[in-house]
Amino acid sequence: MTQPVIVGTDGSRAATAAVEWAAGDAARKGLPLRIVHAVDRLPYEIARYPIPVEDQLDRAGRRILEDAEQVVRETHPVVRVTTALIEGDPSRVLRQEAGNAAQIVVGSRGHGGFAGMLLGSVSMHVAGQVDVPVVVVRPGVSAPHGLVVVGVDGSDEAGTALTYAFEEARRRDCRLLALYAWQLPVHAFAPEITYDIDEVRKAQEDYVADTLRAHRDRYPDVRAEMRAVCAHPVAALVEAGEKADLLVVGSRGRGAVGAAVLGSVSRAVLHHAHCAVAVVRPPRD
Question: Is the pLDDT score of 178 beyond 90?
């Protein structure tokens, strides 16, 4: 059975944007789409003050799923769609769903069942913690730019992200920018050490070129560009993402771009990027 693209929804504007993005991605990949709504009863389970909300939550959830399915039917009628109303904590539900998914898609900020997407628990407790790519989508995305940006740093995680980015660029028939952001190290105990900036930059550019060469051979139809910049990785990636349709990062790496998904770089990128962000981790051994 073909694994579906799974999207979580709570009916919010951001969730609707995630559903539309997931439907487009499923159409490009020829995969089915599974729309999931988590019914979280915990906020209402107060023994001293019981509230009869079970039927209301279920009805609201089914209506949210029906509306999301209708959006897909209107925009991507060829995509096979199924829906699921699942009881439980939203982040736990999505992590469980990831075991039978090709990809997980969530909105950048929601309410109700998927509250606090970027700044809260759901996206941060799913991205990087499952074995499939997790895409976080912002609402109000502008017109397509025809560009996929990927951060590279030489780690296995970044290599997996690079492969994912090439696949997305090929399916979208758009350009790819591989970005290597680097900074000169600061030697606290030897401040007199100096660097030849041109020599360092040349070394970084050669490094990125070597990284890209194998992927260019595998994807000769993708117009790929490399860029090595002396800048903070968050600033470089966010700036590049302003003119991109998708920004891809590894879930854990090293060097300029790499960081744990809950660490400073990837967390900051998720907070500040103006486009959809895909967090990709390598398969486990």
Answer: yes
